């Protein structure tokens, strides 16, 4: 009698597992092991090729992952183009300077050739951001997979409110990250992504021109020069702008954080200062905590009830 009932229980358990995965609550590294076993190689190959041709695509893709996960979870909604019925998140001001979309499109195209309608755009961003960090000399980690793509972008107001501002203070950042189940340690480690890439002058102009007591005067003077043109930019870390290292934290201690939201992580005392000092002295501690926090951030699911799918093209929902 027990043996005849076993298949029913197995089938039920499999059904529950599949439903949980579809809802984004169960992610695991081997999700595509049978359906698209070559997915990691494809993503890594395209990333390596594109970053070799345009190194700035590595921090660009990493930034895409952050901006996607902070709004309605990691659902690739940042990739959706606007339609007559729905504005796109990419067009909202905090996202207007994002790039890297063509890299994700190239990866998705290659995967659609190898295993059609299988790998979500959300998983592509998660894998590509991991490889972006590794290509810049940073750590690598196992990426849990099985995300689904949202059919709709978030509305503009929610997008604006959901993204950290360059002018946020520590309390605002802690609150914003906590709402996503990311604690102060996660926030401090994830902020280390600013060890690579660049920022537009408008995001740091007030800091380098204003009467700030928490900025190194020589750094302020040098950085002002990047604001002379109409599209001025400055690297977050002028010494190793394209190397994923712990220089970001040393810059904070030297009062050389580019954005107000960077420098606010250091100088107030307590746990936050201890973390910055630890990461500045111990690069391995930083990369270890960064990898853990990236996995944690990558597990943020879309809201319950959100219509999801595996998009065939990352910039538009399936018909």
Describe this structure in words.
The chain has 319 residues and is mostly helical. The protein folds into 2 domains: 38-163 and 300-309, Peroxidase, domain 1; 182-297, Peroxidase, domain 2 (Orthogonal Bundle), CATH 1.10.420.10. It has 14 helices and 4 strands. It has helices at residues 2-22, 39-53, 57-69, 101-114, 121-135, 156-162, 170-178, 184-191, 201-209, 217-224, 247-253, 260-263, 270-281, 283-298, and strands spanning 149-150, 198-200, 233-235, 308-309. The strands form 2 sheets. A two-stranded antiparallel ribbon has the order 1-4. It has a two-stranded antiparallel sheet with strand order 2-3. It is globular. 41% of the residues are buried. Residues 1-24 have low confidence and may be disordered.
Compact description:
By secondary structure, this protein is mainly alpha-helical. Helix content is 50%, strand content 3%.
Strand order of the largest sheet: 1-4
Mean pLDDT: 91
Radius of gyration: 21 Å
Helix-strand pattern, N to C?
HHHHHEHHHEHHEHHHHE
Helical residue percent? 40-55%
What's the CATH class label of the largest domain? Answer: Mainly Alpha
Q: How many beta-strand segments? A: 4
CATH architecture title of the largest domain:
Orthogonal Bundle
General shape = globular
Q: Which regions are unreliable across 5 or more consecutive residues at pLDDT < 50?
A: 1-24
User: Termini, distance in Å?
Assistant: 47 Å
CATH topology annotation of the largest domain: Peroxidase, domain 1
H/I helix tally = 14
Biggest sheet details: 2 strands, antiparallel
Summed up, the domain count is 2
What fraction of the residues are assigned to beta strands by DSSP?
A: under 5%
Structural class category: mainly alpha
């Amino acid at each position: 009698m027990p043996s005849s009932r076993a298949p029913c229980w197995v089938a039920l358990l499999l059904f529950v597992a599949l439903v949980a995965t579809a809802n984004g609550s169960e992610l695991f590294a081997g999700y595509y092991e049978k359906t698209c076993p070559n997915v990691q190689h494809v993503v890594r190959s395209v990333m390596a090729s594109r970053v070799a041709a345009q190194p700035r695509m590595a921090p660009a893709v990493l930034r895409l992952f952050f901006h996607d996960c902070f709004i309605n979870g990691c659902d690739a909604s940042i990739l959706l183009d606007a339609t007559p019925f729905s504005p796109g998140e990419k067009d909202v001001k905090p996202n207007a300077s994002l790039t890297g979309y063509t890299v994700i499109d190239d990866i998705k195209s290659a995967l659609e050739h190898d295993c059609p309608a299988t790998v979500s755009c959300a998983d592509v961003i998660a894998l590509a951001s991991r490889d972006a960090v590794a290509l810049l000399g940073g750590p690598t980690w196992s990426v849990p997979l099985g995300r689904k793509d949202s059919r709709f972008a978030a509305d503009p107001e929610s997008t604006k409110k959901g993204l950290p501002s360059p002018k946020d203070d520590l309390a605002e950042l802690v609150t914003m990250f906590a709402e996503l189940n990311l604690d102060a340690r996660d926030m401090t480690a994830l902020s280390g992504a600013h060890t690579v890439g660049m920022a537009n002058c408008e995001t740091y102009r007030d800091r380098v021109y204003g009467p700030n007591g928490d900025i190194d005067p020589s750094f302020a003077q040098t950085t002002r020069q990047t604001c002379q043109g109409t599209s001025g930019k400055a690297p977050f870390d002028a010494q190793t702008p394209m190397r994923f290292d712990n220089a970001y934290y040393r810059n904070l201690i030297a009062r050389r954080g580019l954005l107000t939201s960077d420098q606010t992580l250091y100088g107030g005392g307590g746990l936050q200062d201890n973390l910055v000092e630890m990461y500045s002295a111990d690069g391995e501690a930083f990369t270890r905590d960064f990898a853990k926090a990236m996995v944690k951030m990558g597990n943020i699911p879309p809201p319950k009830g959100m219509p999801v799918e595996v998009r065939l093209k990352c910039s538009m929902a399936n018909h």
